[in-house]
Amino acid sequence: MKRNLLSLALLLFVGYTATAQKVEFEEFDLDNGLHVILHQDNTAPVVATTVMYNVGGKDREKNRTGFAHFFEHLLFEGSENIERGEFMKIIPANGGTFNASTSQDRTDYYEVFPSNKLELSLWLESERMLHPVIDQVGVDTQNEVVKEEKRLRYDSPYGKLLETIGSNLFEVHPYKDPNIGYAEDLDAATLDQFNAYFKKYYGPNNAVLVVAGDLDLEKTKAMVKDYFGAVKSRPEVIRNFPKETPITQTKKVKAYDANIQIPAIIAAYRLPGQASRDAYVLNMISSYLSGGKSSVLTKKIVDEQKQALQLAAFNLPQVDYNIFALFALPQGGTSLATLLQEMDEEIAKMQTELISERDYQKLQNQFENQFVSSNSSVAGIASTLATYYLLYEDVNLINTQLDLYRSITREEIRDVAAKYLSPNQRVEIEYLPKKDDK
């Protein structure tokens, strides 16, 4: 869900410097299990409220994919005290902005308001959690919205890239299905199933509330208790997802997409989850390979040899397994096999040689800039605090993660590349425009 409401855009960056500073925060739990994190910064009259639920695309039963993403839309329909369609009118009418998003691991909702509207923000989110209206009219309306989103995004050129990777990289874990789900599953879902899903996953003890910005700590605590204290806790969500068998032999597949014209080569690896130290190292490896115009793969294959129109190496963070993937579109008569070989050559160098001290320092600078940028607004800080609590189980990462990156050595980069990025540990996908008629 995207909203281009910019009434507070200039205020979001007031009061933050270009260097990392310690973020102070306070935590407490309500009796119903809702975890609350408060961050006070009174330099600008802005407050951000984030509620992140521990539910994502992976949380589904057989033939019930896409529920988490569907609820991202459905819970803007209204509540017992907010008429249908009014939720998204109230926020801009009071000078606020809002958004929501879903990943395979979590769903979050946030608002940014002038600080004198904090109570309104808390009321809106408590209404979403306490008694939303989930009826057939809302379900039917949002089903069409989700289908249109799928047509615009997933049915666009290369829009099914992650879906293609997931379906070939995972065999038993629910990461194998796309976060947006399958249209036939949503069409077949009943109203009772949607209500059951809400009752299972949208309890206060399966969520974290973060309020950041221009606030009074004691008054905010009292308001949080007033608005969320009445929400009843739910049974603990038990997850026991099946484990994937390690890949020990290269798997080669072909995938077809009628929405593309240029073929692509993908090499995908299933790696440890985002909270592991190795995942941080792999973040640095992906940036070294394709993070910017001066990165080794971009400079060599795109700029100098002109063999690729575009390429990328990315490490997609997820709780249970990260996805590390190489992706390239050929230029001219370059074959997909040649592109993969050229990328493999640079990875092989990383596995046996240390990257240069100059490249190492450039990586450190990149990650410091990214870290500071992501926490340069109260909305960014609120999102970061929620993410680190819910998905990393360490809120203080907001103050220590940069030191973690700084502690990664060139030797560690070499060793992690050698440990995980060998051809026998991956799925190689030829991503082709259309299937031959033969």
Number of domains: 2
Low-confidence stretches: 2-19
**How many strands, what sense, and barrel or not for the largest sheet?**
6 strands, mixed
Instruction: State the helicity in percent bands.
Output: 40-55%
* Helix vs. strand class: alpha+beta
Protein name: Insulinase family protein
Organism: Winogradskyella immobilis
Pfam families: Peptidase_M16 (PF00675), Peptidase_M16_C (PF05193)
Family: Belongs to the peptidase M16 family.
Question: Would you spell out the secondary-structure blueprint of this structure?
Answer:
Blueprint (H helix, E strand, L loop, with lengths): L25 E4 L5 E6 L5 E8 L13 H8 L12 H7 L3 E6 L4 E8 L3 H13 L5 H19 L6 H9 L13 H6 L2 H11 L5 E7 L3 H12 L22 E6 L7 E9 L4 H14 L5 H9 L3 E9 L4 E10 L5 H17 L4 H18 L3 H13 L6 H11 L2 H11 L5 E7 L6
Parallel strand pairs: 2-6, 7-11
Antiparallel strand pairs: 1-2, 3-5, 3-6, 4-5, 8-10, 8-11, 9-10
Helix pairs in contact: 3-8, 9-15, 11-15, 12-14
Provide a short characterization of the protein structure.
The protein has 438 residues and is α+β, with helices and mostly antiparallel strands. It contains 15 helices and eleven strands.
Task: Please name the defining characteristics of this protein.
438 residues, alpha+beta, Cytochrome Bc1 Complex, Chain A, domain 1, six-stranded mixed beta sheet, five-stranded mixed beta sheet, 15 helices, 11 strands, 41% helix, 18% strand, disordered N terminus, signal, Metalloenz_LuxS/M16, Pept_M16_N, Peptidase_M16
